[in-house]
């Protein structure tokens, strides 16, 4: 039996280069393992536009059906659509075949159970890994079947269109879909043509992503969008990642909106609908996020980084919304999962309601000076973290995720990467001068 590369199994999903790491044999065995580990009888599967996706889907579906479960074939879908399928269709689990923002030679699999419940190492992925690597499966007496599913997209579009509340206001927006799955999300904007003049960038599917990497977290990929927003005198720019579960935004002035500040802005609107609601934000976020949530009557809750951890937290604790510095935004309305297009609709709703431009909404919550995430290669990550704790022992120390140390006028968070010899630094201060000084001071310790 061929060996499967164990490196493809990450903390929250499966991801690897095709075909050296993730190939048809691996996909077939993963399909069988998912059925056996989750006890699933019907699994919805959607895939992105990567060139390896058709072959991997065929192998995955064969594994699922050989293990006795049915496959609901969603075809080409964004990940938010797959999450919606987990709750709106009668399935036991859903799989999004995608490598998200990774380059085109990669592919991967994200899993959730019924109603969007996340599958991570703690909730089934470790068992899937063990079964896949061992290759020992219980034989099924009856094979499952593959059923084509064609109703999901229309349900999805109609549901999220219902959240638009633009009145007679008109906006021009530019949307960069990077030749990837955000193209499917464009239909929502098109159906709001009475309110939205839509300008698009790279709206033809191409699994090679020839124009730029589908990753709004890398701000250099946003240069063309920024230029186009200014040229078109648009009100908002929107950029999707490869599977459209992560989204970035550009103001009418061509400025990038920090992704944690999106959480703060949206909290104002969400807390009008859910007074006193709980909202989670990851611990790398600006302290203005906590302030804005509390100013608007909400309960602000800090959380570790990672979409599976956050989805479980918001679900288990009855939260109404969560946002990450990485551009993931989690809504109760999509079974506690990401839906970037709803963020864009809510921005437009706020602009229509207040009469303010998006840059004015950002200015209101942009109160401090953030370093952004800075990566440093480090051989002994634990030793560096210990040095930081010793150096800044007079601060408030939290070890929720890496180490976070807070002082009245600045804070730092240093987290180890799960997959690389890298430490990730985020730091914020009340003034630009202090941020730069403390950033350089901390980096000197990290980099030795």
Q: How would you describe the overall organization of this protein?
A:
The chain is an alpha/beta fold. The protein is built from 14 helices and 21 strands. The protein has four domains: 6-151, Alpha-D-Glucose-1,6-Bisphosphate, Chain A, domain 3, CATH 3.40.120; 171-250, Alpha-D-Glucose-1,6-Bisphosphate, subunit A, domain 3 (Alpha-D-Glucose-1,6-Bisphosphate, Chain A, domain 3, 3-Layer(aba) Sandwich); 259-365, Alpha-D-Glucose-1,6-Bisphosphate, Chain A, domain 3; 369-447, Alpha-D-phosphohexomutase, C-terminal domain (TATA-Binding Protein, 2-Layer Sandwich). It has helices at 24-38, 53-66, 79-88, 125-134, 152-161, 182-190, 223-232, 259-273, 287-295, 307-316, 340-354, 358-365, 381-391, 432-447, and strands at residues 14-17, 42-47, 70-76, 93-97, 106-113, 146-148, 171-176, 196-201, 236-240, 247-250, 278-282, 299-303, 321-323, 329-331, 337-338, 369-370, 374-377, 396-398, 403-407, 410-416, 422-429. The chain starts with 13 loop residues before the first strand and ends with a helix. The mean pLDDT is 96.
Give a quick set of tags describing it.
single chain, 448 residues, alpha/beta, Alpha-D-Glucose-1,6-Bisphosphate, Chain A, domain 3, 4 domains, 6-stranded antiparallel β-sheet, 23% strand, globular
What is the CA-CA span between the terminal residues?
Answer: 46 Å
Sheet-strand content, in percent, reads: 15-25%
Shape: globular
Which CATH architecture of the largest domain is right?
A: 3-Layer(aba) Sandwich
Give the % helix. Answer: 25-40%
- Low-confidence parts lasting 5 or more residues at pLDDT below 50? none
- Content-based structural category: alpha/beta
Return the average pLDDT rounded to an integer: 96
Tally of strands: 21
Computed Rg: 22 Å
Number of domains: 4
Largest sheet: 6 strands, mixed
Question: Would you state the CATH class of the largest domain?
Answer: Alpha Beta
- The CATH topology name of the largest domain reads Alpha-D-Glucose-1,6-Bisphosphate, Chain A, domain 3
């Amino acid at each position: 039996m061929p060996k499967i590369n164990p490196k493809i199994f990450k903390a929250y999903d499966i991801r690897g280069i095709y075909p050296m790491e993730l190939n048809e044999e691996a996909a077939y065995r993963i399909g069988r393992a998912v059925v056996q580990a989750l006890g699933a009888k019907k699994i919805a599967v959607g895939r992105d536009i990567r060139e390896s996706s058709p072959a991997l889907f065929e192998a995955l579906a064969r594994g699922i059906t050989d293990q006795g479960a049915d496959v609901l074939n969603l075809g080409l879908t964004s990940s938010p659509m797959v999450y919606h399928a987990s709750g709106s269709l009668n399935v036991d689990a859903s799989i999004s075949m995608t490598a998200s923002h990774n380059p085109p030679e990669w592919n991967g699999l994200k899993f959730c159970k019924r109603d969007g419940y996340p599958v991570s190492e703690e909730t089934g992925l470790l068992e899937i890994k063990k079964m896949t690597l061992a290759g020992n499966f219980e034989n099924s007496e009856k094979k499952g079947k593959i059923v084509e599913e064609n109703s999901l997209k229309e349900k999805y579009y109609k549901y999220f269109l219902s959240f638009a509340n633009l009145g007679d206001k008109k906006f021009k927006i530019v949307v960069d879909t990077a030749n990837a799955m955000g193209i499917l999300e464009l239909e929502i904007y098109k159906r709001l043509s009475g309110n939205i003049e839509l300008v698009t960038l790279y709206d033809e599917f191409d699994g090679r992503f020839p124009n730029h990497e589908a990753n709004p977290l890398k701000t250099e990929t946003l240069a063309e969008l920024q230029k186009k927003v200014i040229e078109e005198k648009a009100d908002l720019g929107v950029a999707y990642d490869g599977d459209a579960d992560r989204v970035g935004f550009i103001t009418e002035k061509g400025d990038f909106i920090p992704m944690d500040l999106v959480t703060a802005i949206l909290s104002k609107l969400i807390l009008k609908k859910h007074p006193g609601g709980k909202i989670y934000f990851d611990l790398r976020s600006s302290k203005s996020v906590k302030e804005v949530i509390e100013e608007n009557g909400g309960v602000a809750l800090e959380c570790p980084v990672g979409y599976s951890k956050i989805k479980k937290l918001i679900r288990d604790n009855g939260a109404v919304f969560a946002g990450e510095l990485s551009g993931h935004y989690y809504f109760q309305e999509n079974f506690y999962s990401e839906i970037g297009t709803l963020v864009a609709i809510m921005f437009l709703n706020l602009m229509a309601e207040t009469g303010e431009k998006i840059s004015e909404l950002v200015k209101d919550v942009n109160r401090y000076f953030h370093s952004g995430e800075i990566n440093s290669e480090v051989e002994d990550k634990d030793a560096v973290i210990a040095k930081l704790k010793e150096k800044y022992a007079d601060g408030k120390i939290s070890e929720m995720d890496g180490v976070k140390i807070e002082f009245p006028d600045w804070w730092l968070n240093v987290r180890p990467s799960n997959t690389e010899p890298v430490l990730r630094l985020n730091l914020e201060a009340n003034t630009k001068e202090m941020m730069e000084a403390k950033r350089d001071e901390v980096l000197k310790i990290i980099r030795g």
